[in-house]
Amino acid sequence: MKKLYLIVGLIIMFFIPHMNTFKVSTLPSQELLPPPIAVNMTLEESIFRRCSIRIFSDEPVSEEELSTILWAAYGYIDEEKRTVHGINGLYTAKIYVLKEDAVYTYNPLNHSLIFYKEGDYRKLVAQYDAPIQLGIVWDTTKSSNENYASAEIGEIGQNIYFMANALDLGTVTTVGFTLSQIGLPPSDVPKIIMPIGHPKYPYNFVYCPLVFSLLPRIQYSNMSLTDAIEERREAEFFGGELTKQEEFQVIWSTYGYSYLLDKTKDEFYYHINRHRTVPSAHGYYPLRIYVVKESGIYRYIPNIYDPIYGIYLLPFSWFPIPVVTFMMKIKSGDYRDEIAQASSPSIATAPLIIVSVLDIERTRPKGFDDFSGEEFRWLWYYEAGASAYNALLESTAWGLSANVFPIVDKGTVLSVLGLNGDDFDPLFIVAVGK
Ligand SMILES: Cc1cc2nc3c(=O)[nH]c(=O)nc-3n(C[C@H](O)[C@H](O)[C@H](O)COP(=O)(O)O)c2cc1C
């Protein structure tokens, strides 16, 4: 009799934690995704077309499309290499895939969806209705650094934007705390939700390069989006010289404006807008991009008229900004050694070093939400991660070598750039060479 109790007890102990899984025996516990589609759009066209879409049609997203977006977001290229760069070599994100029937997690190892929970949670968690919602979390068992995890999620977000758009789908980065309502393990901290669907109002882009640019005109490389993702390699040594064209292609990719005017019409208004290469929470765009070269330190000015509140003026923004873009010289002299000591000694010989710096004042514009506190810093690391990742892709497309470095000694970087630590926070360094 005792034995029987023991057996029944063991069976109950096994079944209770798995109850949810057993309840849905009709759904497979793991579903392999079809192979991703190769996208031929050039990398620059993808970057030009990056924009946020918030209204979707009911048209479903096919399994091939979902597979392609998930692979670009966080898949494997070969046995070791991922489609995005892990800050400090760590991979700390996890993607939940919310479909009509159930919630799944993306398993990059065999490119499959693992069943997580039955039920349609999409409306419950999302800001915008769409056939698929991707919930991206920071897996705290992999790293305790929220800012670097957010930067990695920023990279993932870029590939979701690029791939969705290239497939004529759309997406937007949204803050994703509501994802906790699906019942996440305590170690998974929700960060971002990105809806995926067909835009209700078709894209309408018109090629219109900047008329008054003082910098070389952005050119299309011969590399497709898929090839750029697949061929991305992080360099360990940097040298050689870059042409002005190569140099500016990479600088532009970090924070510049598109050469396409977005003339998408919807039922509310007919707007003309020029998006930027990365998204930004509330459209604040608070980063400064500095360039450190042998000849001196420069600041990239993507637009002489740079409205903090661009997003709020959208319905009225008929003027195809920006007006003028240029590099502003801050000081002469070779400061690459100092920057290398503050991050990685290997970059002292890099012909181009890009430093992204948060301008804290721009994260608390008067009359708008204040995102300047430490608790919001992850939002800006997301943006800096997206920006650095663009530089890696653009360097790949131009046959250059590049890598992203966290900043170990922020004080030195601030002093080299002549900035005050109360108002500015240096976030990342990208070194580029040949
Ligand atoms: C970290 C982050 C959080 C964001 N959160 C939201 C959000 O919660 N809701 C939303 O509608 N857009 C959100 N956005 C999108 C921005 O509003 C958008 O990128 C910006 O207005 C520029 O527009 P564009 O992406 O179409 O060029 C977010 C963007 C970032 C980078």
Summarize the SSE layout with pairings.
Blueprint: H1 2-23, E1 30-32, H2 43-48, H3 63-74, E2 93-98, E3 102-107, E4 112-118, H4 122-125, E5 132-139, H5 146-166, E6 174-175, E7 188-196, E8 205-207, H6 225-231, H7 244-255, E9 260-262, E10 287-293, E11 296-301, H8 310-313, E12 326-332, H9 336-342, E13 352-359, H10 377-397, E14 401-406, H11 410-417, E15 424-433
Antiparallel strand pairs: 1-4, 2-3, 2-5, 3-4, 5-7, 6-7, 8-9, 10-11, 10-13, 11-12, 13-15, 14-15
Bound molecules: flavin mononucleotide (FMN).
Flavin mononucleotide is lined by residues 51-52, 54, 127, 172-175, 275-276, 279-283, 311, 379, 382-383.
Structural features:
NADH Oxidase; alpha+beta; 434 residues; six-stranded antiparallel beta sheet; binds flavin mononucleotide
